[in-house]
Amino acid sequence: MSIKENLLSIKNTFVNPDCLLVAVSKTHPAVAIREAYDLGVRDFGENKVQELTDKQAQLPEDIRWHFIGHLQTNKVKFIAPFIYLIHGVDSLKLLTEINKQAEKSGRIINCLLQVYIAKEESKFGLDEKELMDLVQSEAVKALENVKIVGLMGMATYTDNEEVIRQEFRNLKSIFDTLKIQELPANFNLKEISMGMSGDYIIAQEEGSTMVRIGTSIFGQREYK
Predict the structure, then answer these.
(1) Rounded-to-integer distance, Cα 117 and Cα 6, Å
(2) pLDDT tens-digit series, residues 143-190
(3) How far apart (Å, rounded) are the C-alpha atoms in residues 211 and 110?
(4) What is the DSSP annotation of 191-206?
(5) What are the Cα distances from residue 78, in Å, to 41, 81, 98, 218?
(6) Is 107:145 a contact under the CB 8 Å cutoff?
(7) CA distance linking residue 174 with residue 68, whole number of Å
(8) Per-residue pLDDT tens for 27-79?
């Protein structure tokens, strides 16, 4: 199927039409991104800084670039001038560096805090206590060039839908708990980024506002 047919098929299966589709374009060429762009997609996700900066330089300026991988602190400076949303912030150290580079660029960068909800050691993220400690820390309150707009989580890679559903439900519960707290001024919680090609329907049913879909749009990844 073509990118156009894939996008149409995905949109037809959305249970929440207001959920944002982030097209995960990592490893796919700029021409494929341009095709999706011409079909109306504006949000694209990348997980390698060099690849992202290369693509950003040759594609339309109104694309909203999402960084969805594990971001190293020494790479933040390369994407700070243009990044729309950083999905996987999992430490105060990283958040502080994003703030520093955002200030240099004269920007406020939107971020999602990544919560560890899966039963897999390979996943990154804060556990619930670490998250609550971070949110209430004086160090975070002092960061004026970041805006925490929500949470992000990745479910266990499994065929067991009940496990996936429970993990997404857990993230939604943590989100709801945070929402009713008195939060610092640099928080504006509205997004829950959860769900990918294999589980985005379940994620939407459990409250996702943003899904990250790559393979189902662009096909298998193109490794060089």
Answers:
(1) 29
(2) 999 999 999 999 998 999 999 999 999 999 999 999 999 999 999 999
(3) 17
(4) EEE---TTTHHHHHHT
(5) 24, 7, 11, 26
(6) yes
(7) 20
(8) 999 999 999 999 999 999 999 999 999 999 999 999 999 999 899 999 999 99
